[in-house]
Amino acid sequence: MENIYYLIITWIGAAIMLGVGIYDYKYRTKPVKYGISNSTSDRKITDVKAYNKAHGKLWYIYSAFLWLGGIFEYFFPEFSIFFFILYSTVGVGASVWYVRKIEEKYIVYSIKDRCDAGTN
């Protein structure tokens, strides 16, 4: 019975992430500011709608892992820590990589940004 509480909490988090993903994917008109990305206010985004859709997909993927993680923990509670560790390490690294790919594709950096980063 204790496992049902973890399932409910996990699914609430997954529903919130899914809601953010749907909002970013379908309804957001201003550029998304994701936690690990640079501020987009001073950079030119080539296609705001596609940029936001790409971020929405990231939230969908996170949500899917939480939906699965809740089920996994409910049926196999002794192995749920491995899923959590995998999600926390590989998931965070994959999100950093994915956000950088989004930025490379949709953000045009100014010369000042490139000089500040050490690339000319």
Automatic annotation (TrEMBL):
Membrane spanning residue stretches:
6-25, 58-75, 81-99
Q: Which domain of life is it from?
A: Bacteria
Keywords on this record?
Answer: Membrane, Transmembrane, Transmembrane helix
Q: Say yes or no: keyword Transmembrane present.
A: yes
**Protein known as:** DUF3784 domain-containing protein
- Organismal lineage: Bacteria, Bacillati, Bacillota, Clostridia, Lachnospirales
